[in-house]
Design brief:
This protein is an alpha+beta fold. Helices cover about 20% and strands about 30% of the residues. It has helices spanning about 1-20, 150-160, 185-190, 195-200, 265-280, 280-285, 305-315, 315-320, and strands at about 25-30, 35-55, 70, 70-75, 75, 80-85, 95-105, 115, 120, 130, 140-145, 170, 200-205, 235, 240-245, 290-295, 325-330, 335-340, 350, 355-365, 365-370, 380-384. Strands 1, 2, 3, 6, 7, 8, 9, 10, 11, 12, 13, 20, 21 and 22 form a 14-stranded mixed sheet that branches. The chain has a 6-stranded mixed sheet with strand order 14-15-16-17-19-18. About 45% of the residues are buried. The structure holds fe (ii) ion (FE2). Fe (ii) ion binds near residues 174, 209, 210, 295 and 331.
Length: about 375
């Protein structure tokens, strides 16, 4: 009987901890590398939270004191609603479990005597897990979703077919939302519909032309931080090296739609300088397969708009000289396969539809692509 009562007490405490959770969106993982990742989540009220990390060895998470990782600024922990904690010093290609613990801020306005609520487990589950990248992995497998434009139902259905155990990361290839007027709405629509996948798979976000629209546009980067501090960056997983690019807005800066706020021309030049150096990086040069991930494709269509023409003329030759094997894009809301040699470009471009999920498998000598609709039916295939 005593044992039963103890069990009930533990259950009640556990439920209390769960119901008291301050979490509203997340957690999700971004900025994945061989030795670290960033855990992100959003709470309803400002709180002082941290991440605990454990190896994926089957041990009881709470029975051992685990390393704690804090979000800090200038030597002090920071509290707030948007949480972003860097976990570093890890081993490549290794799965780690993590969980979030925190306290709601009651009053931290003074220099001393802060008041917090009780410490509770923030993570919705006992723990989540994520695997670090590894350049020595034999294979690279990832999924791609794009141009969801706030359609939560389609987003959930397309993501539901992802094999979590056989996927290294999920690429969100732009325009998952249509505007960034309110960052809470953006976080909700980017994460909640794919909560099951986001808790396990690192998210790579290649910004589209729509995320830059709306008053909270500058907060968007904080949801998906990168190693460069910009939306452009590169990374390596097994045989595949990736360059992630951002073409910015699609129309000229002076277009009336932007109300005098667009200044993408100099920004794309800055990105061009980064790209010229990124393709010389030994991790990129030595990769058997090289893939560019970008929302707007470098293909010449009859009705191509300003930035698409610009990146085709300016980034196309750099990517061709770098010997990329494939570009994966979005933006056009339909499947486009532009083969190597078309329009004079030296690499193939695949544009994924907004109605399909793309699954990609890369080995040292092959790339295979399959796309699936909301019912899980195979729609397109491509291989190199
Ligand atoms: Fe777009």
């Amino acid at each position: 009987m005593k044992r039963f009562l103890v069990l009930v007490a533990c259950l009640l405490l556990s439920l209390q901890a769960y119901s008291a959770s301050n979490l509203i969106y997340g957690p999700w993982v971004s900025n994945i590398s061989e030795t670290g990742f960033t855990v992100l989540w959003v709470t309803e009220k400002p709180s002082l939270d941290y991440v605990e990390v454990a190896p994926d060895d089957g041990s009881a998470f709470e029975k051992t004191e685990r390393p704690q990782y804090y979000e800090t600024a200038y030597g002090r922990r920071v509290s707030g609603r948007y949480h972003s904690v860097r976990v570093d010093g890890l081993a490549p290609g290794t799965t780690y479990r993590y969980r979030i613990v925190g306290q709601v801020v009651k009053d931290d306005s003074g220099p001393y005597r802060f008041h917090y609520g009780p410490k509770v487990r923030i993570s919705p589950k006992r723990s989540s897990s994520v695997r670090t990248l590894s350049s020595s992995a034999q294979i690279c497998r990832f999924s791609v979703l794009n141009d969801i434009h706030f359609n939560d139902e389609r987003y959930t259905k397309l993501a539901s077919g992802i094999d979590l155990d056989a996927t290294d990361f999920l690429l969100l290839n732009g325009d998952i939302v249509s505007y960034t007027e309110n960052i809470d709405s953006v976080a909700k629509h980017c994460i909640v519909p794919i909560a099951a996948q986001a808790a396990r798979l690192p998210l790579i976000y290649a910004r589209g032309n729509h995320e830059g629209r709306g008053r909270d546009f500058a907060k968007f980067y904080g949801l998906f931080p990168t190693p460069t501090g910009e939306f452009w960056h590169s990374f390596r997983q097994g045989p595949a090296a990736f360059i992630v690019l951002d073409a910015g807005e699609d129309k000229p800066d002076k277009s009336h739609e932007y109300g005098g706020q667009a200044d993408y021309d100099p920004w794309r030049l800055k990105e061009t300088e980064w790209l010229r150096e990124a393709v010389k990086d030994p991790a990129f040069v030595s990769a058997p397969m090289k893939i560019c991930l970008i929302h707007v494709p470098t293909i010449n269509l009859k009705d191509s708009w300003y930035s698409q023409v610009w990146i085709t003329e300016n980034w196309g030759p750099i990517l061709a000289d770098a010997g990329i094997d494939l570009m994966i894009s979005a933006h056009h809301h339909k499947w486009i396969c532009s083969p190597e040699g078309a329009d004079g470009k030296a690499y193939p471009v695949l544009v994924n539809s907004n109605m399909e999920r793309m699954d990609v498998v890369v080995t040292p000598d092959s790339i295979s692509v399959s796309t699936y609709d909301v019912d899980g039916a195979l729609v397109h295939q491509w291989a190199k």
